[in-house]
Amino acid sequence: MALTTRKTSGAPPAPGRGGGSTAPARSGVRAALSGARRSLIGLLVLLALLGGLLAWGAGTDRTGWGPKLALDLEGGTQMILSPSLQGEDAGQEVTPEQLDQAVEIIRQRVDGSGVAEAEIATQSGSTIVVSMPGVPSAETRELIQTSAQMNFRPVLTTAAAEPVPEDQRVPEDELPEPAAEPADSSDPSWITPELYRQFEETDCTAPQSPEEREAQDADAPVVACEPETGTKYLLGPVEIQGTGIEDASYGTAQNSQGASLNQFAVNLQFGPDATERFQQLSERLYGIGQSTPEDPRSQFAILLDGQVVSAPQMNAVISDGQAQITGSFTEDQARFLAEQLKYGALPMSFEIQSEQQISATLGADQLRMGIIAGIIGLVLVCVYSLFQYRLLGLVTISSLVVAGVLTWLAITLLGWSANYRLSLAGVAGLIVAIGQTADSFIVYFERIRDEIRSGRSIPAAVDHGWRRARQTVLASKAVNLLAAVVLYFVAVGNVRGFAFTLGLTAIADLLVVFLFTHPVMVLLARTRYFGGGGRHSGLNPEALDAVPLYRGAGRLREPGTGDGLTIAERRRRAAEEVPPDRPGEPAPQDAPVGASSSARTPEENA
């Protein structure tokens, strides 16, 4: 009985012979190549813009070609300050609490962003030592020596910290125009077209420089920021100076009957003159809140050195000078705000007792050793990449070079714009980033190899591997960024520089992987050598023990299933596995339905 096969209409077409699949495949290839080229062009434009900006800054002597170095690597200036109280407290001894608050105020003035690597500390319980990289300018010296300025201003309007997009800003012909002279500091007539446009353009997500905050006029409206809540304020003129606060404390809030409200509050006590002015302010703001509850003009802002530290709403008329600020405070937040209100307005000035130039605390030897450690780590990563991935390792090396250039440009420009200074802790962050950056490439390359082992062609393996590796890379970098942000906000000093560098390199890594590494792999996968799985390409299917989906002679398998053998090959392998002492035992049956169920030897047929 002859065994015949019949082609049915549902049989899959032979690979490569589908008449209607060629055009979509070619279209997909063109789209992939076009997207890769656009990504590379975008990266080149970004590098050109950053490089051009740096060249312009260096050419106009606004910055140098390299990053600014911190105190431990460059040296700088050390000033010893002697504090003295002014006004009614003149001649009194400065308490340790006042001195600690003075340290925090000076730190905010000279290193508000936390990355300038300045060191401020008390000495002998009576003086303050300020160590700064480089030579401080005359403006910085004056800023350090002057007393803190605290004042109260009424709120005119509020907005989110981000600048208003240009297409959403108020048109020129609809900008507010004052109808008359302002009647009081809460009058909207203070808002001019120029002031409102400045309010829209102000970006409170970036820290304001001490010089910008110092330039605020007490008799004019200003735009101010509250970094804690990410809010932007347009404020009226100063109503009350901070020197009018006699005392500030914190504790649990109580209602009018004296019962605890189970939340923390900050208590203020004004002096005699400030009590009267605060009563007038509370009557006006409380009236606004009663007539229009959602009006932000029922709030008043407390500013320390031009920066909003709190903006409570007026909920009652206060005539006895005893105010209470409530909100969702933790105990630490309430304590910190009370200290700011109590000591932030201290009429304290500082006299520079001595000033001297100091050498680098770590010196050139430590910097050289740090650079050598980074070079050794980079060389080891490169050697491992070439050993593990052959010529594909060149993609890793070139990606590291691009990431290094991008990070160098960013650090140098940040030194110009934000006074960022690279310390030895920052150098350590860059060294750690080498391994983290290489880890992204390893995840991607291994996913491509897994797809090749599953039987996909190399171009298809690159596309499918990227879709799967992309999520892993994003999750990994999100964890790195989260760790860097937490470390930045809970640490001080050099540790903040390490966290800042770690976060910056994580962002650079994402840009390089998306705009360089993947586009280069897409282009290489369409070349003859890499796309054909060249011997030393790192993508050779034979070296990866890959079994193709279609193996010829009607052999077709799904990725990850089966062993890739035909029925005859399975039977021959089974026969070879039969022990020598049992030659007559028949081989396992694996024949299709309708075929002969026995396999005879020539001797049996005879």
Automatic annotation (TrEMBL):
InterPro entries: SecD (IPR005791), SecD/SecF_arch_bac (IPR022813), SecD_1st (IPR048631), SecD_SecF_C (IPR048634), SecD_SecF_C_bact (IPR055344), SecDF_P1_head (IPR054384). It is a multi-pass membrane protein. Residues 99-155 form the Protein translocase subunit SecDF P1 domain. Keywords: Cell membrane, Membrane, Protein transport, Translocation, Transmembrane, Transmembrane helix, Transport. GO terms for biological process: intracellular protein transmembrane transport; protein targeting; protein transport by the Sec complex. It is found in: Cell membrane. Residues 1-26, 160-190, 555-606 are annotated as: Disordered. Residues 228-347 form the SecDF P1 head subdomain domain. Belongs to the SecD/SecF family. SecD subfamily. Part of the Sec protein translocase complex. Interacts with the SecYEG preprotein conducting channel. SecDF uses the proton motive force (PMF) to complete protein translocation after the ATP-dependent function of SecA. This is Protein translocase subunit SecD.
